[in-house]
């Protein structure tokens, strides 16, 4: 049913600036619903169909293809790839393919803090650490609590190290910092000019802070001291919360980068994401853009507040997007949709009149649901109705004797309503996509962009190269 529209869309793409390199053929394999197209069916039918056309360099499948594209690639020895779920997205899709987007690199490490570690058992700390690693963290930060004993700090550090994790210890207690370093911690947060002696007595890399945020000279003095002794470190001027000196604190980072072009800089971004009632995804994206611009090599984030429970994952995707855009010297757009949780670039690909025209062609009883700027469209061969409230559409449904179908339509209409309210893309029979906000998703969503490439730290855009003794795994 989509073949004519598909050809028209591809013809329009071919008439653009890429016309000299964009040539295509459409093959109709005789399957009415894309989701029912299987690899076995294609292996059977494609040889004859391909024999009639010029050998392709790549074959694209409908985005709703639910079978194994890799099996097809191996069988035909031609790359097979899923396209978008809607043909209206093909111009952007082929533009991204031409750009050859690579999100395997980034320029800063993520330190994910377990802030209540003294209250957890070593096994609970390990469980939280493994979750953070699966979300993209490079270093697990074990945080101490003022006035709270931490007798199992040594055991906890050793347990995490045994799992191959990079570990930092964050405490105001010098005894806890030394204990963590002796147990094998890789980093110590945070040393001041008065506690630099610990950097000489341990092999852990220190994160330096000023005595007070207003005393940046004490930070510079600490930097000079460790630099003269060739001891690797990070320097953190301290990021203040919004409306509590945030703008001035960002300027401190800019001043530090200008004063010490080769210094490794550290920023605690949780001070912003945790301390305002706003979704953390946008805040993390903006913060990681600042990180990329200033060449900051380490960030500390937390997931304490309920509204910031995806901050590690958000920071991971954001740093990759910002690094890729920085390398391309372009805006951070059209690299990945994962940071668009509430809204989408093009939520309504079809105009109301286009949906109405499609509805006129339907000769079946099965209900179809689409969403436009006007609301939710419900139609079959006998019905066409548009509303913003599913209860208005309920009156049109002829499914009184089929409770399973009623339940199905109720779920789909509810999804469609949410999509219309928020400006989300709705595809019937598929859940709405929430990007990194979806708590059922870990880092699997990123794999499509990594394309089996090894994740790695890339300091091409950064202000400083890591010291040999401070090489971290991505």
What is this entry, summarized?
With 474 residues, the chain is of the alpha/beta class. It contains 17 helices and 15 strands. Strands 9-8-7-6-5-4-11-10 form an 8-stranded parallel beta sheet. Strands 12-13-14 form a 3-stranded antiparallel beta sheet. A two-stranded parallel ribbon has the order 1-2.
Structural overview:
By secondary structure, the protein is of the alpha/beta class. It is built from 17 helices and 15 strands. The chain has helices at 3-14, 39-50, 69-76, 90-99, 122-135, 153-162, 174-182, 197-201, 216-228, 246-259, 270-273, 280-294, 311-328, 352-360, 390-394, 403-422, 444-450; strands spanning 59-61, 80-82, 105-106, 109-114, 139-143, 166-170, 187-191, 205-208, 234-235, 266-268, 298-301, 368-372, 375-379, 384-387, 456-457. Helix 5 crosses helix 6 and helix 12 crosses helix 13 (311-328). It is elongated, with a radius of gyration of 27 Å.
- The N- and C-terminal alpha carbons lie at a distance of 46 Å
Level-2 CATH architecture of the largest domain: Alpha-Beta Barrel
Average per-residue pLDDT, rounded, comes to 89
Percent strand: 5-15%
Structural class: alpha/beta
CATH topology (fold) name of the largest domain: TIM Barrel
Per CATH, the superfamily of the largest domain is Dihydropteroate synthase-like
Unreliable segments (pLDDT under 50, ≥5 consecutive)?
449-453, 461-474
Number of spatially distinct domains: 3
User: How would you characterize the largest beta sheet?
Assistant: 8 strands, parallel
Overall spatial form: elongated
CATH class of the largest domain: Alpha Beta
Instruction: Please give the radius of gyration in angstroms.
Output: 27 Å
Strand order of the largest sheet: 9-8-7-6-5-4-11-10
In total, the number of strands is 15
């Amino acid at each position: 049913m989509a073949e004519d529209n598909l050809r028209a869309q591809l013809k329009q793409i071919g008439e653009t600036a890429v016309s000299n390199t964009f040539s295509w053929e459409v093959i109709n394999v005789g399957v009415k619903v894309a989701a029912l197209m299987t690899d076995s069916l294609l292996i059977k039918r494609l040889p004859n169909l391909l024999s009639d056309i010029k050998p392709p360099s790549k074959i694209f499948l409908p985005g709703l293809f639910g079978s194994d594209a890799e099996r097809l690639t191996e069988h035909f020895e031609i790359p097979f790839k899923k396209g978008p779920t809607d043909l209206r997205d093909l111009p952007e899709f082929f533009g991204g393919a031409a750009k050859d987007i690579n999100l395997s690199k980034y320029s800063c490490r993520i330190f994910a803090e377990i802030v209540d570690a003294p209250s957890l058992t070593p096994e609970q700390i390990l469980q939280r650490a493994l979750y953070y690693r699966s979300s993209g963290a490079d270093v697990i930060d074990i945080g101490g609590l003022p006035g709270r004993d931490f007798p199992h700090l040594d055991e906890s550090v050793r347990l995490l190290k045994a799992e191959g994790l990079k570990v930092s210890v964050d405490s105001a207690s010098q005894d806890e910092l030394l204990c963590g370093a002796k147990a094998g911690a890789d980093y110590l947060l945070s040393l001041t000019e008065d506690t630099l002696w610990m950097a000489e007595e341990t092999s852990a890399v220190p994160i330096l802070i000023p005595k007070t945020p207003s005393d940046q000279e004490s930070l510079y003095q600490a930097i000079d001291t460790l630099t003269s002794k060739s001891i690797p470190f990070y320097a953190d001027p301290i990021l203040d919360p919004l409306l509590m000196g945030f703008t001035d604190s960002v300027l401190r980072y800019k001043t530090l980068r200008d004063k010490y072009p080769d210094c490794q800089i550290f920023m605690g971004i949780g001070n912003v994401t945790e301390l305002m009632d706003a979704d953390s995804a946008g805040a993390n994206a903006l913060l990681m853009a600042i990180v990329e611009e200033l060449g900051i090599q380490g960030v500390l984030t937390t997931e304490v507040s309920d509204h910031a429970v995806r901050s590690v994952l958000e920071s991971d995707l954001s740093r990759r997007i910002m690094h890729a855009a920085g390398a391309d010297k372009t805006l951070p757009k059209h690299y990945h949709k994962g940071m668009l949780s509430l809204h989408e670039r093009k939520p309504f690909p079809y105009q109301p009149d286009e949906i109405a025209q499609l509805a006129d062609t339907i000769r079946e009883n099965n209900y179809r649901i689409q969403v436009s700027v006007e609301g939710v469209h419900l139609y079959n061969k006998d019905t066409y109705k548009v509303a913003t409230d599913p209860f208005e559409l309920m009156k049109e449904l002829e499914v009184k004797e089929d409770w399973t179908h009623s339940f199905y339509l109720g779920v789909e209409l509810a999804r469609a309503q949410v999509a219309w309210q928020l400006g989300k893309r709705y595809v019937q029979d598929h859940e709405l996509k929430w990007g990194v906000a979806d708590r059922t998703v870990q880092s699997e969503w990123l794999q499509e962009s990594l394309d089996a490439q090894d994740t790695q730290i890339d300091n091409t855009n950064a202000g400083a190269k890591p010291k040999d003794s401070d090489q971290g795994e991505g």
